[in-house]
Amino acid sequence: MTKKNTVNFESSLKKLEEIVSKLEDGDISLEDSVKSFEEGIGLVKECQKQLSDAELKVKKLLESGDTVDLDS
To answer: Which GO cellular component terms, listed alphabetically, does the Swiss-Prot or TrEMBL entry include (predicted)?
Structure first.
C-alpha cells in the first residue's frame, strides 16, 4: 500500500468518524443528515475496498513467500 493510500484511508476514516458524531448529535436538519449519511456510505465503501486490496496483497505475500510490489 502506498503512502497515498494510507493517508487517504486514514483521512477517510477520520471524516467518517466526524460524520457519525454529527449524526449522533442530531443537531442537523433531515436534509443534511441524509447528505451526510450518503457521504458516509461512500467513505465506507472506499475504506472497505482499500482494506480488501491490502488483505489480498498480504495473502499473496504469505502464500508465495515472494516479494510483492505493495506500491501497485
So the answer is: cytosol; exodeoxyribonuclease VII complex
Task: Note whether 19 and 39 are within 8 A (CB).
Answer: yes
First to last CA, the chain: 7
User: Model pTM?
Assistant: 0.72
Contact indicator for 14, 38 with CB cutoff of 8 Å: no
On whether the CB atoms of residues 25 and 33 are closer than 8 A, the answer is no
Q: Which of 45, 48, 51, 53 is nearest to 70 (CA)?
A: 53
Answer yes or no: is pLDDT of 1 > 70.
no
Q: Give the chain's domains with CATH numbers.
A: 3-63 (1.10.287)
